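Regression test attached.
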Amino acid sequence: MRVFISFAHDDANLAAQLEAALRRNNIDTWSALDIAPGEDWTQAIDKKSASADGYVFLLGAGASENPQLRAEWRSLLRNDWESKKSLIPVILAHGGVPHDLPPFLRNRRAILTTNFDDAIREVRYLIEHPAETMDHTHEQQSKAEWERRRNELKDYALSLKQENGAGGEAKTQ
Amino acid sequence: MRSRSLLTVRSIRNTGIFCWLTCSPFFAHGFVPRTARETEGNPEPRFSRILATIAASKYSIHDLSRSQGEGDENLARLNMPLELGMAAAFRFERENSDRPHRWLALVPEGYAYQSFVSGLAGFDPARHDGSVASIIREVSAWLRTEDDALDPVPSAKNILQSFPSFRNELANLRIEALEKETWADVLLAASNSVPKP
């Protein structure tokens, strides 16, 4: 199991601690801390995330608004095009799960770093049990929301069709 | 309607793939695909219709891969950079407002874009090789990070595999419409063929 650790520059110290702890637990990890001097950042992230089996996302305050971090997330998700990799959010907070988790992590089991040793144990457990990274609490709700939006879009298409019928045809290309 | 979006991908020349590509990824992630084609027949100039559609959308995607010299006269298509300029202005103008605008630029693989559109430096454009698969990967990865995206969503691979189903749906709708299918038909075909998460 190879794990890619994603983190913001400000959280580099904790990322280093996490990486060291996971390696002590015989988990093969990689993060931007391992980029060699002069190595192309974009290519290294792309290559390592492609070969990883799962991603750990360290999320500090304002992570969702960090442009560099968002760019890294895109690289990771691009390399998860079958949606089969484990996505594990690790929240660097003491006050609970923040409301601005990126959408692709909202239905994943989040780990808080309130107690570092416990957090390492939980991360290790989820890495070894990828099927449990999904938080099934909201699964039905999420599926219902997906269906609701699809129906809403369908209604939108039908209303557009009626408008077209009333105002003339808009032929496709 | 909430979280409306605009997708205007221009690099694909095959009409069927183009229609599918401008709908299915957005449907799959819970967004509403919009293009200037939905207002075809409207007497307003195309430029005005595009401006109005971008203004009403929260997200937009702009493919610059054909903004390079082509054909006997080596002319570049410059409508897309023009439209990206509109989107960039909306993003700047609406920063920190309750009507933000977010955009993604698609550029050819490699770093040539840094020469022909150096102003994108620092905006992390998505690079693709012109293939449908590479565009789907880039678009899906971006959509998954945006606030209004749903989770879970169909994988990019499943979206790609839905193309034959879309083509069949659209063919049926085209027959019903006596070969004059509308943009609404394209949307319906996408909504009927989009894979479930």
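Expected vs. actual: identical. The mean pLDDT of chain A is 88.
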